[in-house]
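Below is how a single chain appears once it has passed through the pipeline. First comes the sequence as given, then the structure the pipeline wrote out for it. We keep one example in the README because the format questions we get most often are answered faster by looking than by reading.
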Amino acid sequence: MAIAVALLVLLLASPAVHAVTHTVTWTSGVDYTSTANEVYTVGDTIVFNYDSTHSLDQVSASDYASCNPSSPIKSYSDGKTSIPLTTPGPMYFICPTPGHCPGGMKLQINVVAASSTPGTSPTTPSTPGATPTTPSTPDTPPATPSTPGTPNSPPPPPKGNGAASIFANLILGTMLVLGSTIALMG
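Resulting structure:
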């Protein structure tokens, strides 16, 4: 019985957190500069899929602005690059192939801290070529206000449909009934 109570306490104390995998089809002819509604959260992963005519460089803000691939933070060329998002803040990616970054093949994202409040993720991505594939929890809104749609503005907080809250309440209710039943039997 002590084990059941300990398990119940552990489950009730743990927040529900779900990571999102953002998939980006990294190709020429797509403008990746608009990320107004995409939410990237610590714990999520961004996956870039691309062919052998492209590569991927993670760069500084100044190298992103000038499309300068000469001193990347990290370079990738494996065709399917998976990058875990571990730190809040902006991240910058460019294609170092000559002419590709100036042609729009560059992506800036803003990674926000994860929230421990149960909720849901946005339902539609706005980044061309990016698609969330698993649900997440809502994010903490940016500390500084900005005008939606302006370049480099942080994304707005997601609007949820309550599915994660319903799921969390269902688990909570089940655990309470189970705990009460075990307590009465003991």
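The beta strands are 21-25, 40-41, 45-49, 56-59, 74-76, 80-84, 89-94, 106-112, 130-132.

See the next section for the split statistics.
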